[in-house]
Design a protein that fits this description.
Number of domains: 2
Helix content: 25-40%
Strand order of the largest sheet: 1-2-4-3-5-16-6-15
Number of helices: 9
Distance between the termini: 21 Å
Radius of gyration: 24 Å
Strand content: 25-35%
Number of strands: 16
Oligomer: single chain
Structural class: alpha/beta
Order of helices and strands: HHEEEHEHEEEEEHEEEHEEHEHEH
CATH architecture of the largest domain: 3-Layer(aba) Sandwich
CATH topology of the largest domain: Aminopeptidase
Largest sheet: 8 strands, mixed
CATH class of the largest domain: Alpha Beta
């Protein structure tokens, strides 16, 4: 049986892939700085005799298994960058780069795809098309997917299906979660400057208090979602920074704040952006101040293809058992630049359970104690290999 054969191959390479993951974990690099990570992955691919191109859209790698002149390909993506976090796990393979940590599991994603490459290379002659491997930089900052697409990673041969995964510390090892349609939200960044007029703190009537105006702007913005958007439509508007004032007895003349807007619907996103401008500017005027509003769109929502997701769920149920395959009831409001691949090609994106039942501390992403259970690597490789084979047959 194909699944049992592939499962056996995954078991054989598991310890080697764990070693790869630990090396990556010990040597994390921030977004757009992944030179050593790129070199490490490239050396591994060279050792497997897998042709590949480096420095794609930055420090990205595009590798190909199968006939490079095939009429079509399917693609699998892994992100490689780390976060500016000081690791506190105390693990023997903890980060050796102080202040930088793989706190979002991208080391696991990359190691899984390296293992997938090894398994698929062993069956290269049997593939009805090509499989492309995207080792992507800068997911956390800057959106490395878009430059890779602009550099042509989806062409020659053309990619017909694309797949990705993300570790999920909210789920136990062995479980996988899929999403029908929306998986995660768009991301929009906002910066608001409140311009008042400073004066002596004992004579506030002679100035325009930017802190007072800014505080009311923050309060008013929290009502934008509840009074401008239907309660059935998920939207998050958060002000995460608020800075102003120079001294305890001086009325502040300037306040700067920034925040994030997350939506699943781009029309709703645009509506809320318009309301942010109106509310911030009008509220500031009420307190004798003005507001300068800058809004920058980032990632799109991650919208999975229904047919591709259904096919991948069938693969997962056959490989893991139906009890270990979860269809999420609702999306998450975090953002993910895999959105740009899905905006070009039908595909799917699923979450890989990574937490053991006996975990010593709560596990969350972007946390300095994040330590995913490494046995999730087996599940990830198995599903990437089987998914690639299923998509190749489907596109044949």
């Amino acid at each position: 049986m194909e699944i049992d054969k592939i499962r056996g191959e995954v078991d054989q390479i598991y310890e080697d892939v764990v070693a790869l993951r630990r090396h990556l974990h010990m040597h994390p690099e921030l977004s757009q700085q992944e030179e050593q990570t790129m070199a490490f992955v490239s050396d591994y691919l060279t050792g497997l005799n897998i042709p590949h191109q480096t420095n794609v859209g930055g420090h990205g790698i595009v590798a190909i298994i199968g006939d490079p002149k095939a009429s079509f390909a399917v693609a699998i993506r892994a992100d490689m960058d780390a976060l500016p976090v000081l690791e506190q796990t105390g693990l023997p393979y903890a980060s050796q780069n102080p202040g930088v940590m793989h706190a979002c599991g991208h080391d696991v994603h990359t190691a899984i795809l390296m293992g997938t490459a090894r398994v698929l290379k062993g069956m290269e002659s049997e593939l009805p098309g090509a499989v492309k491997l995207f080792f992507q930089p800068a997911e956390e900052k800057g959106g490395g997917a878009k430059p890779m697409i602009e550099a042509g990673c989806l062409q020659d041969p053309p990619v017909k299906r694309v797949m990705g995964l993300h570790v999920d510390p909210a789920a136990p090892v062995g479980k996988v979660t899929f999403f029908n349609g929306p998986r995660s939200a768009s991301s929009t960044t906002l910066h608001i400057t409140i311009n008042g007029r400073s004066c002596h703190g004992a004579q506030p009537q002679t100035g325009a208090d930017a802190i007072l105006a800014g505080a009311h702007v923050v309060t008013a913005l929290q009502q934008v979602v509840s009074r401008s958007v239907a309660p059935t439509c998920p939207v998050v508007l958060t002000i995460g920074q608020f800075n102003g004032g120079t001294r305890h007895n001086i009325v502040a003349g300037k306040v700067e704040m920034s925040g994030t807007l997350r939506t699943l619907d781009l029309a709703v996103r645009d509506l809320v952006k318009e309301r942010i401008h109106q509310v911030a500017e009008d509220t500031a005027v009420m307190y004798g101040a003005t507001a300068d509003v800058e809004i920058h769109d980032g990632y799109l929502p991650v919208i999975t293809d229904l047919a591709a997701t259904q096919r991948m769920m069938e693969v997962a149920k056959e490989a893991l058992g139906a009890e270990n395959v979860i269809l999420a009831k609702e999306p998450v409001m975090t953002s993910e630049d895999f959105c740009f691949f899905l905006d070009e090609v039908p595909g799917t994106f699923f979450d890989l359970g990574t937490t053991a039942l006996d975990c010593a501390w709560p596990q969350t992403l972007h946390n300095d104690h994040f330590a995913p259970n490494e046995s999730c690597i087996k599940t990830g490789i198995l599903l990437e290999v089987l998914g690639a084979l299923a998509f190749l047959k489907e596109c044949e």
